[in-house]
User: Fold this.
Amino acid sequence: MAVAGLLAQYMSVKNQLTYCEQQKTRWDNLATAMTKKLSEQEKGEEKWNSQYDSADSACNDTTELKLNGNIVLQKKDDTHPTFARRVVKGMGLSTAGQAQFASSFASKKVPKYDPALLEEYTDLDMEYETMAAMYETLVTELEAQRDGLKERVSTDAQDTHILGGS
Assistant:
């Protein structure tokens, strides 16, 4: 009777192992896909920050700023003291609006970057990596249980002369 109980336990562990291996594969695939999406957003964030810095510094010097070949910030004309720098296409430029202009410029230069998506992808990436690691641990534990039960079933079956006994 002990062999039957051990065999039932062995089969149960094998079923759990199969399920956990499937789940591990699922979470590994999700984590890999999310890591790619997260990486794209992180690169977008770097580009966005670079464009923001470019626009911000252009507001303080005599640089002309272009977006898709169009001038969006004219050069400062030092020969006419009454001529202040101005933003083309109706965007006003003031000290307070400088950050808003730089943000708007960076967003137009890097349209694929979305801070909300970056945050969401970061959270999902952590969740998927955690789940994949959890299932990896479960698979390792279940493999150890399976191997131990397999040895016990084999030994007990031989002791009862069910397998290869005399």
Observations:
- Residues 2 and 123 are 48 Å apart (CA to CA).
- The chain is about 70% helix and 5% strand.
- The longest helix spans residues 2-60.
- The beta strands are 65-67, 70-73.
